[in-house]
Design brief:
The protein has a domain of 135 residues. 47% of the residues lie in helices and 0% in strands. The protein has 9 helices and no strands.
Length: 221
């Protein structure tokens, strides 16, 4: 796999310098096989180059699978399966899980092409070419890797990143509201406040006390 990290200029009125290391695998069939096996192999403690052979992927050419899983955040930096991996095991939502993961992992590509999964090979190659000093074969493998990942995704049912954040924000607000106890309709609470006032002939003392009471206890703000 390529390990180069290079600057990439995005098409637009201004260029943005970013550091990206897009993963790829020579044999995309092995990647497809691994993704298809996720619901069946359970959730390993770790997925790394040491544990891959135990899962049936013994060739050195299979090792890029680990980097790809990290890139789409199916495993963390230590190789521990993430919630994405766990959710992907649910075949009823696996395609949406993958779509959301790819929108995040390939965020710059989706900024350039919101429908990146529909783009032709040449457009995808033009995106990946500035990210590597390697030759055309590596670029082709980057495209093929992306396309295989997309074949496990349903972008029509998934949400763009901004909408995902909006939905998460709304969900958190709903949870906060649920956590606030509500009084039955028509119930009124009366609070009895008793003050021990000092004995004095100076009426201004009482005025100040009641003014402070109104300001600090009775104010709705």
């Amino acid at each position: 796999m390529g390990k180069e990290k290079h600057k990439m200029n995005l098409i637009g009125t201004s260029s943005v310098s970013i550091m990206v290391d897009y993963p790829y695998i020579n044999n995309t069939g092995r990647l497809r096989s691994f993704l298809e096996s996720i619901p069946k192999i359970g959730v390993p403690d770790k997925i790394n180059t040491n544990t891959l052979p135990k899962l049936g992927y013994k060739s050195k050419n299979d090792r890029p699978i680990v980097k790809i899983l990290k890139f789409i955040r199916f495993i963390d930096e230590k190789g521990v399966p993430t919630q994405n991996y766990i959710n992907f095991r649910d075949t009823s939502k696996a395609k949406v899980v993958m779509a959301n993961a790819l929108r995040k992992a390939y965020s710059e590509l989706f900024k350039l092409y919101p429908d990146a999964y529909k783009q032709n090979d040449e457009n995808l190659k033009n995106f990946f070419r500035p990210t590597t000093k390697a030759g055309e074969q590596v670029v082709i493998r980057m495209v093929d890797t992306f396309k295989v990942l997309c074949s496990f995704a349903d972008f029509e049912k998934s949400l763009p990143e901004t909408e995902i954040k909006d939905e998460e924000s709304k969900r958190k607000k709903r949870e906060e509201i649920k956590g606030v106890p509500r009084l039955p309709s028509g119930v009124t609470i009366n609070i009895n406040i008793q003050l021990a006032l000092p004995a004095t002939d100076d009426a201004s003392v009482y005025d100040k006390i009641f003014k402070a009471l109104k300001e600090h206890l009775l104010s709705r703000s």
